[in-house]
Amino acid sequence: MSPYTLKKLQTREELDAVVDVIFKAQYSPYMPSSSIFFPVSGYSLEDRAAGVAASQERLWKEHLAADPAINHWIIVEENASSKIVGGCLWKWHDGNPFPDGVPKPNVYWWPEGEAREFCEEMIRQSMTPRSLWMHGKNAGLYMMVVDPDHRSRGVGGLMMEWANTRIDEMGIEGFIEANELGRRLYEKWGYRVVMKLDLFIPSNKSDLWNKLAHELKMPPWYASKFDQSGFKPNRAGLSGISIPMYFLISNR
């Protein structure tokens, strides 16, 4: 019998616990790019606590505003302690959510200014493969996290099994962006890398963009399903500083 139980997220307390896991996981190992989505404005314990609280409030408001037919939050609890040790957000789409290309994201949780513009551009570029491949009904993984103390114990597998069962039942495709830490899990569950992306900085930007490119550096990301040669963006007017990502699609 598994020491863990999977269930759908229901309460604010459960989502708050998932955010706690996110902040714990993004520092073990440290993944600077996570700060794009979960920023901390300073270096003290108080600054970190404020960042956690702000992210908890933001994700709960977004959860309440989301269409429950599209957004599906899943959590995993440890049976012995009733502690939440993992969570994921899948979105089900009837078609391409970006038929006209990826619009500029609104990273409203960052203060207005160049840093926010940088984060918005990096997210826009990273979502480009979805706009190219999401043609029919599909499912996209937007977030998955496992408590570092519970990695390699089947927590991620429970969440992938839940998603794959529904993807197979519906006969649709699944899409994932992944870093090196999660790549092996996704490949184990039928995903394979389609392409590697390089996120580029427009050459007309200030030195702050170069600074942020290093401070918020993306780890390798992946995607699985189709055997494609890879997305080659038009790099005219772009700087030579790149941030590697990978895109995966379901091999089902």
TrEMBL record:
Residues 131-215 form the N-acetyltransferase domain. SUPFAM superfamilies: Acyl-CoA N-acyltransferases (Nat) (SSF55729). It holds the Pfam family Acetyltransf_7. This is N-acetyltransferase domain-containing protein. It comes from Sclerotinia nivalis. GO terms for molecular function: acyltransferase activity, transferring groups other than amino-acyl groups. InterPro entries: Acyl_CoA_acyltransferase, GNAT_dom, Trichothecene_AcTrans. It comes from the Eukaryota. Gene3D superfamilies: 3.40.630.30.
